[in-house]
Amino acid sequence: MLMQINTPIWLIAVERRAEWRRSLATLTDYLTRHTPSSLLLDVSDGLDFWLGFFAAAVAKIDVVIPPNYQPVILDGLRQTETNSLADILSRLGPLSNATISEYQTAQQYPVANISITLHTSGTTDRIGQRKAIQRRLFDLLREVQALRQSLPIHLDNAAIISTVPNHHLYGFTFRGLWAFQANLPIWPFHLEMPEQVVAAAQRIINEDGLTPILVTTPAHLSRLPDMVGLAPIQQLRDVLTAGSPFTENHAERLAAIGCYPLEIYGSTETGAIAWRRQLNSPFWQPLAGISLNAQQDAAMVSAAWIDPSISMPDHIEINPVGSFLLHGRIDRVIKLGEKRVDLNALENVLLQHPWVQEVAVCLIQRKRDALAAIVVPTAMGKVEIAGANAAAINQQLRDYLNQFFDRVLTPKYWRFIDCLPYDERGKLPLKNIEKLLATGESP
Question: What region holds the AMP-dependent synthetase/ligase domain (predicted)?
Answer without folding.
Answer: 111-276
